[in-house]
Design goal:
mainly beta, Rieske Iron-sulfur Protein, four-stranded antiparallel β-sheet, binds FE2/S2 (inorganic) cluster
């Protein structure tokens, strides 16, 4: 595990998320009251791009089949509905979350 400098802290507005590619891994980082949280950017159901998902408080909604994930922990807060589950025979699983820290105004993620 190494710390990677991703951006300046001011690059992610409060209450928003942004997607980054860190050494080939897609991560979304969100800012809540100047605390930063990092989780996988690809949905665990079928790879939907969570960086393009809508947010609702600290939840992101997958743009593909609408599973919802906690941006602070990566945990599924609402799984896909029965129709999509029957169609795809698969459910969303909790995503990985990653440690973050700030050094000299730089936001860093441990991967
Ligand atoms: S790909 Fe995200 S809910 Fe299906």
């Amino acid at each position: 595990m190494t710390w990677n400098t991703v951006c300046k802290t001011g690059d992610i507005e409060n209450g928003k998320l942004k997607e980054f590619d860190i050494n080939g891994k897609k991560i979304v980082i969100s800012n809540f009251d100047n605390k930063y949280y990092a989780i996988d950017a690809l949905c665990s159901h079928m790879g939907g791009d969570l960086g393009k998902g809508k947010t609702n408080d600290n939840t992101v909604i997958c743009p593909k089949h609408h599973a919802q994930f906690d941006l602070k922990t990566g945990k599924v807060t609402k799984n896909i509905n029965g129709f999509f589950k029957a169609m795809t025979r698969k459910e969303a699983k909790d995503l990985n979350s990653y440690n973050t820290k700030i050094e000299d105004g730089n936001l860093m993620v441990e991967l």
